[in-house]
Automatic annotation (TrEMBL):
Pfam families: adh_short_C2. Gene3D superfamilies: NAD(P)-binding Rossmann-like Domain. It comes from the Bacteria. The lineage of its organism: Bacteria, Pseudomonadati, Pseudomonadota, Gammaproteobacteria, Pseudomonadales. It comes from Pseudomonas knackmussii (strain DSM 6978 / CCUG 54928 / LMG 23759 / B13). InterPro entries: NAD(P)-bd_dom_sf, SDR_fam. This is Short-chain dehydrogenase.
Length: 248
């Protein structure tokens, strides 16, 4: 099913330089959607550059910086209105569970960064428009060392669900996708050395129903479904795409 009946739909995806956000941007471009993609790195990755003739607009920017979100809004105004928004930019860092600065750092990107992206673009959204925030499977369980990360995502989820009600009158439909363990560079940024990472991966794999991390496409496809008209009756839900991790 095509994502949209609109002749020239536009999407904004943050964190589009890598992992899940990159896979979402690629899929949207393949479906003929113009994509305003943002991440801190200066140039789009090669796989996006290869599709640049198809409607890619790249903005190098940081979702924690108001000036960068203003530039995003300005570009959106020129391209818009915006049909789809995926505030996907995120970071994950291991820290002591009582380390408040670790929470502030991760909330700044994962929570405030995502919400401020929507705030900056709210007036540029089409009616209707669909927004998919990114949570985490870990909100269902626990993971020692990631309390601050989980808290940032869980607070985002709480806010997104109420926003789904508040913004419904403007025909903005809001949901979340909570990925399970997905093979992306984020795992290499947690602060673990190679052998620690291998041992975490082993124990994670044992809980996954097919024994391996999700590939990004499985998560991106779920995000595209929630953006699409096929999900028009779904509001404020958290779709957990986790290869069964939270079932055991
Ligand atoms: N992979 C998993 O297992 C998993 C599980 C649950 C949830 N998630 C969530 O899924 C989302 C995508 O993560 P991923 O796994 O695809 O990780 P990733 O490959 O590390 O991608 C993260 C993206 O966010 C961007 N980013 C980070 N900080 C940013 C900032 N301040 N401003 C703008 N962009 C920023 C990065 O680009 P630059 O460095 O170029 O800025 C990159 O494009 C995140 O929200 C993450 O929390 C991932």
């Amino acid at each position: 099913m095509p994502i949209s009946e609109s002749p020239s739909p536009v999407a904004v995806v943050t964190g589009a330089s890598s992992g899940i956000g990159l896979a979402v941007a690629e899929r949207l471009l393949q479906q003929g959607v113009r994509v305003l993609a943002m991440a801190r790195r200066s140039d789009p990755p090669a796989s996006l550059q290869a599709q640049s003739g198809t409607g890619l607009f790249w903005l190098s920017g940081d979702v924690t910086r108001a000036a960068d979100l203003d530039r995003l809004a300005q570009l959106a105004r020129e391209l818009g209105p915006i049909d789809y928004l995926v505030p996907n930019a995120g970071i994950a860092q291991l820290a002591d569970g009582l380390d408040n600065e670790a929470f502030q750092r991760q909330w700044a990107v994962n929570g405030a960064g995502a919400l401020n992206t929507l705030a900056a673009l709210r007036d540029q959204l089409n009616q209707p428009a669909a927004v998919v925030f990114i949570g985490t499977f870990l909100s269902q369980v626990t993971f020692p060392g990631l309390a601050a990360y989980i808290a940032s995502k869980s607070a985002l989820k709480a806010q997104a669900r109420t926003l789904a009600v508040e913004l419904a009158a403007q025909r903005i439909r809001i949901n979340l996708v909570s990925p399970g363990p997905t093979a992306t560079p984020i795992w290499g940024t947690l602060g673990l050395d190679e052998s620690q990472l291998a041992s975490v991966a082993d124990s994670v794999n044992q809980r996954l129903l097919d024994g391996s991390f999700l590939e990004v496409g499985a998560v991106a496809d779920a995000i595209l479904f929630l953006l699409s008209d096929g999900a028009r009756g779904i509001h404020g839900q958290d779709l957990i795409v986790d290869n069964g991790y939270t079932l055991r």
